[in-house]
Amino acid sequence: MTETPRRFDPTNPDGAPTSPYAEAADATPGPASAEQGLGTDVAATTAGREDTTRPEEPTAQAPAPAPAPDTRQVTRAGMVWAAVACALVVLILLIAFILQNQEYVQVKFFGLEGSVPLGIALFIAAVGGGVLVAIAGAARIIQLRLAAHRVRRQASPGTRTR
Q1: Do residues 122 and 101 make contact, with C-beta atoms less than 8 angstroms apart?
Q2: What is the Cα–Cα distance from 134 to 130, expressed in whole angstroms?
Q3: Interval 115-129: pLDDT, tens
Q4: In this structure, is residue 66 part of a structural domain?
Q5: What is the pLDDT of residues 65-79, one digit of tens each?
Q6: 48 in any annotated domain
Q7: How far apart are CA 88 and CA 106, in angstroms?
Q8: What is the distance in angstroms between the CA of the first residue and the CA of the last residue of the chain?
Q9: How many distinct structural domains can be found in the chain?
Q10: At residue 54, does pLDDT exceed 80?
Q11: Residue 160: which domain range?
Q12: H helix or E strand, kind and range, residue 115
């Protein structure tokens, strides 16, 4: 008969692992772990076998929780790298678009008239739209900063600014 794998409990001296399966179960926590308070192993129960493990004895002190796995830290350098990588992908797609649209088109703008490749004309239009959005965003940011400055100035009337 084979032993059912279970986790090692350091507060129970009789529960030391006696097989390589028990050590493997200790290394990789499964659904039935000692921290969850389950006295049976899921594999043994689902296979229809009898439970060969004993219920754990209550201890005066609860075992310390396992340390949390290391989480990745998001850094400014990482964010800049991701932004540069995305910008490079967009630029490559833009270059492919411009190279595939080399037919000359007639462009008229406020009385000006000229002939430009279609890809370049669309690129210029997109950059112009981006500039307009940037100007509108900058105006809104300036407006919000001025409003915040007025609120700070009214909140502290005793101080004078020069």
Answers
A1: yes
A2: 6
A3: 999 988 888 899 999
A4: no
A5: 777 667 778 888 989
A6: no
A7: 30
A8: 88
A9: 1
A10: no
A11: 103-162
A12: strand 112-117
